Amino acid sequence: MSNTLPDIQLVVRPGIVELGWGHPDPALLPADGLAAAAALTFAAHGHSALAYGAEQGPGRLLTALSERLGRLEGVTPPTEQLMITGGTSQALNLLCGQLSRPGDVVLVEAPTYHLALRIFADHGLRVVAVPGDAQGMHVETARTLLQILRSRGERVAFLYIVSNFGNPTGASLAPDRRYALATMARHEALMVLEDDAYGELWYDAPPAPTIYNLMPAGPIVRLGSFAKVLAPGLRLGWMLADPALVQRCVRSGMLDSGGCVNQFTAHMVASFIAQGQLDQHITNVRNHWRERRDAILAVLARQLPAGCTWNPILGGFFVWVRLPPHLDTQALLPRAEAAGVSYLPGARFFAEGSGQHYLRLSFSLLPPQALELGVKRLGAVLRKAC
Ligand SMILES: Cc1ncc(COP(=O)(O)O)c(C=O)c1O
């Protein structure tokens, strides 16, 4: 019997240049290196890798991650502040369960990662948007909103922020705002979930210290993921938090029942790191994505009509394009797809439904020639619409 069910999330439609998907190019996934790491795992750690894992994650991966963060960032987190997750999506789901009750408020940037909004909705949370700009979230506005909400008796469960090369805008929180947010988190006893999915994918210079590193003993959780820097199908990430919160998560029913969320993969990634392959792989993908970033920015400048603007892109996967305000990118999408190019309409990234004249392009999936073709097609559609 032949299988007609999908094996993967990504759907590539014939004739359409897909600029909507923020997935890594399959050609950049390190299948050979991971195969070698899997073989080493079976040979040297088979028993442990196939057992129910320690709830916090295998000690050898926790130790390797702590050492690696110390080497790259100059701050070595104690392993009791670290735990292995099934990627940031799983970590967010777990943290919503631990930190919130239905009806609580979550503060997010406008715009923000649209699928985090889905997870918050799953938990019955009410999202309140804080405006942002090219320097990231307006932290002082977040403080004002927090005070208003609390004065009305509302419970604010946490603030969620993508601090580096955000999805969808590519913007990073400016260093002074990071400091202001870390300080506010401590003074106001506000939990901050710092989603750092893209921090290692910088193309010009490494980003400023994370909010977590500015206040490691504060109420800040940092979420890292192997989805972008290695492979999304691994379903693996990590979390840094106060040891008491790590213990709360480690003692959750799901981990008590099943042990580490992804024990074999965690071991395999530990072997990949032990073989010295992670840094090498990240340097390699950075070079590819830098080239694609340069290609898409160059063709955008040539092809998009006057009145369209975008931020400089220093890292991550996305270009956030602003069209003249009378254009609606949701309404334009069928025309773009008929012309052979797709994107994500901006309104999806705003919890409160604005952003109709923005669109998100991703340069992570396709090689430079395909990006150029896609943007040429988009330019033709926009020139007609303007
Ligand atoms: C900002 C952000 N956070 C989290 C995720 C998902 O992370 P993971 O694959 O580790 O669940 C994505 C994926 O697009 C993302 O853009």
UniProtKB/TrEMBL annotation:
Domain Aminotransferase class I/classII large intervals: 36-378
A molecular-function term among this protein's GO annotations: 2-aminoadipate transaminase activity
Coiled coil: none
Keyword Amino-acid biosynthesis: no
Keywords, alphabetical: Aminotransferase, Transferase
InterPro entries membership: Aminotransferase_I/II_large, PyrdxlP-dep_Trfase, PyrdxlP-dep_Trfase_major, PyrdxlP-dep_Trfase_small
SUPFAM superfamilies reported in the protein's UniProt record: PLP-dependent transferases
Family annotation (Pfam families): Aminotran_1_2
PANTHER family, per the entry: AMINOTRANSFERASE, LD15494P
Protein name in UniProt: Aminotransferase class I/II
Species annotation: Candidatus Viridilinea mediisalina
